[in-house]
Amino acid sequence: MGKPAPLYVLAALLSLLASKVTDAQVPANFLPYGYGDIVNPISDDGSSEAIFLQQPFKYFGRTYNQIYVNNNGHLTFTQPLSAYVPYLNSGLDIIAPLWTDLYNVNGGTISYREDTSSAVLAQVTQAVHQYFPHVPFTATSAFVATWESVPYYSGGGLVTFQVVLVSNGDRSFILINYGDIAETGQVWLAGYNTVDSVNSFTIPAASVPELSSSSNINVNGRWSFHVDGSLNLPANFLPFGDGDVVNPISDDGSSEAIYLQQPFKYFGRTYNQIYVNNNGHLTFTQPLSAFVPYLNAGIDIIAPLWTDLYNVNGGTISYREDTSSAVLAQVTQAVNQYFPNVPFTATSAFVATWDSVPYITGGGVVTFQVVLVSNGDRSFILINYGDIAQTGQVWLAGYDTVDSVNSFTIPAASAPELSYSSNINVNGRWSFRVDGSLNLPANFLPFGDGDVVNPISDDGSSGAIYLQQPFKYFGRTYNQIYVNNNGHLTFTQPLSAYVPYLNAGIDIIAPLWTDLYNVNGGTISYREDTSSAVLAQVTQAVNQYFPNVPFTATSAFVATWDSVPYITGGGVVTFQVVLVSNGDRSFILINYGDIAQTGQVWLAGYDTVDSVNSFTIPAASAPELSYSSNINVNGRWSFRVDGSLNFPANFLPFGDGDVVNPISDDGSSEAIYLQQPFKYFGRTYNQIYVNNNGHLTFTLPLSAYVPYLNSGLDIIAPLWTDLNNRHGGTISYREDTSSAVLAQVTQAVHQYFPHVPFTATSVFVATWDSVPYYSGEGVVTFQVVLVSNDDRSFILNNYGDIAQTGQVWLAGYDTVDSVNSFTIPAASAPELSYSSNINVNGRWSFRVDGSANSCDTCTEYEACQERSGVLGCVCLDGQRPNLEFFDAVESCASSTGSISLSRCQLFESGFSTETLHLNDPSCRGTLEDGRLLFNFDNEDHICGTTLTSNRTHFIYQNAILSNLRSNDQSIISRARWMNITFSCAYPLIQTLSMPMGIRAEGGVISQEVPGQGRYEIHMVPYHDAQFTSPYEGEVEIQVNQQIYVAVEVLGVDESQIATVLDNCWATPVNDIDHDIRWSLIIRECPNPEDGTVEVLQNGNGTTSHFSFRMFTFSGNSDRIFLHCQVHLCLVNNGRCAQSCEVGYRRRRRRSLDFQHSAAVTMGL
């Protein structure tokens, strides 16, 4: 080879072995390798054998079936290459991820495999889609070659890299992945080159290690290239290549006849076959080899680019008929975008693509595509242009028909201009509708796709069409219908009459009754549609045209006359009738498209058996129908035809979004858990039941169908009787917190209860819609609405049509104890529809929370009067003391406090009791004897109370505030507001004496300071150090016997306050200031002169403990009296008791007879 033999083999091997421990991990973008790979021979400047590829690889226009993996870091196709010094212009097609002198004799592995596993193909397909988003591609093969830890020939380090050849036969890509690349002084090169060096690229890295962090696709250490030689396709091309049929390679050739699964309608003619001609055009009846384009060819032709193309020299012409959901969705979306007024869903897409096909004269290639989109009735073409080379050849782009009546030439000045021209504002795309039908107006429902087509017959009709959802027509319900060719619908029999006339003696709907002749063309079709999209569309229309009728469609029957000619000729008509129903409510929508003028007799409207309900659309001429309307939508008329009365305006919306009760005789809903609890005469409920027989209960469902009072239940009965939803109707409910509904019911409550301040936060709506009596005497429609906020509750009963009945019935409400009970006084059930207690026909309203009205609680010192439009209790003369503070009366005890204000003074000053609260807005006052009382304590009902202290007192403080919320959006308010601060103060320091007596009792002191708080201090003696056994009754304590004393403060919050013993002492008489005294505790610590005293607990809670040995005073009574001075400490201010150093604990000798056995009786 001419290279010197390496003298460092052993050193290199040692270095390699060491490097195996320290090599970095292979980066994540490497494809799996090693397992199952074929390993290259260990050879200086060696190569693999010829590797025969399962999937040929296209490399810049040349296709290879074999490849060589060369040890020195490159791939070749025609022969192995041992060259270790890289050079450009090698005269070979070469891919060189890292071409340098590598030496696998000293270590490392060079391996390869061709991988067709689904996991790897998915991985490389995803990568290509990411790096080349406009190239439709699915990989069918990945050839992976990896150099792992291969040393340079000169030593000094290792390299790890990988090259992946990704292909699907037509498209080819390479991915080069770099791992750890050591620095080297060797010559190296990374990139690719071709035989003629026309396509050549060198990766621009300043040093070889830089390859590991460089990239052209923003992924460190990865480079990717498109290498088949084809130009990238624009984004608007449909996928092609994979699964396509390829045209023969032939000058001026064509495909065979291609039989279409979905016939294609082209300007009134329907074709079942097509030809893809190599020279850039499609024909239907025969192939066409003409290479010079010309108009008036006398055939139907679609020519995306008709010129002399020569696939003998390269490129691919391919086609397929695609019915995949992804492609159909894509072309449907395109058609809907470009033709928004044409209802359309594609069922077939025929895709023909010319990919990099050269002109016969040379000079460049062209890439374009034509897509025929169809659903059987509607047809469109999309023409997509990629790169179009300039040419001097004659060319033409557009379409033509047999008679050239429909013909179009794309107006481009040069062939390359096609790539960025458009008629639909998408560069390189043109789109045309080519079925020959007129466009439909926007208010037509979709038709054609899935419709049943009427027979072609003069004066014919459909068969009887059985309806899934019966249709109610002016009181009669039909389960079948006929679509008659002459422009009308009937229910009981077909009707062939072609001359329209009123009083036909049948129920008839006639969108355009005249003599139509589908023998000469056009389509008459129909379907019953229950799809969610169509139901939503017709529901929205009905709600718009009949806003006071709550309605949700469950069926839409659509019949369409599409381009049907008059029998006399002279033009065609397009119109549609839609029967919309939910079983109880029925509507018709009549939609008019293009209506030609005619001299025939015609009629548009509807009629009934007895002609009681009859309507003729007042148009002066047939074409006028296309822009006439009764609902302000050109070309649309709408009518309600079930014959029922409209719901009264005071019904709340229902149906849409409601939960529907089970169909069951005497049934009920499940327990319905309320988001907002409902207060019913003093009881608060979190659940409710909607019972089919016309009532609501709270604790359990109720199946009773015979109404009775005193049922022992809380019950709301808008109409309690035996109802049977098995025979029809709907019972539904919802809890509604929408702002619109809350505003509506809040307004109603304000109107009916003007003196009750109220804003609704929840509305529960239950509706019985056209539910029949069990006896079958008719149907009833009514609604009950439960309106609530935290404090107030109301019910609204709304009555619609209520049929007469002989059944027992009752309307009203009752309670568990029947204390609150009301029966609506109607003489008959139908009378409910126009009776009322609030002057609104068919509505009753009640307040049901159980709270008293404003004036019900006025005391003997108050009178009920109106102020500023509100009723309330005013003060009688002489009952207005302390006006400035509303006669505030404050009370403090322990850690609790209360304050009361005069209710009448508050009312006279414009303050509602409902708007006042303590610092915590949830702490509101309660009315007691004409006063508004507020309470707090410092445990379970803090209410925003704050606790502070000074040198003499600790203080609980709160305030009475008014709610400043406004119901309007004004930035100012002139309403008065309140802020009355009040406090309870307690002395920090107290002195307690424990007198001796005959009986042992607990010593209690109560401190009451005018205007201040009060708490209690107890001093209790105990037998034991555990303080479990207090002295009781008459006892004796021996001199020198240990006694245990507890000092406890009651009525304060132990989480915030601690008791501290400052000083304790004894006197021989019950006088705290007696001149003879013996100190037990001095400044919180035991008297150092009395070694028997122990302070057991001090400042750690509301109870302090100490002990000492019993003694008497020499020469005095055998009684002693204990006294303690204590102070209270706020725990959050820090440590409440100081530490006491342990001193000399031997007692000083006193005038005390330790052997004296006289009994001392101690009582507390």
Beta-strand residue fraction: 35-45%
Shape descriptor: flat
Mean pLDDT: 85
Low-pLDDT parts are 4-24, 965-974, 995-1011, 1143-1164
Number of strands: 68
Strand order of the largest sheet: 1-6-7-8-9-12
How would a crystallographer describe the biggest sheet? 6 strands, antiparallel
Helicity range of the residues? under 10%
* Number of helices, counting only DSSP H or I runs of 4 residues or more: 6
Classification by helices and strands: mainly beta
Through-space gap between termini: 120 Å
Q: Whole-number radius of gyration? A: 49 Å
Keywords: Disulfide bond, Signal
Signal peptide: 1-24
GO biological process, one term: cell-matrix adhesion
Domain ZP: 891-1147
Describe the structure.
The chain is flat and about 145 Å long. It has a six-stranded antiparallel sheet, with helices on one face. It is built from six helices and 68 strands. With about 1150 residues, it is mainly beta.
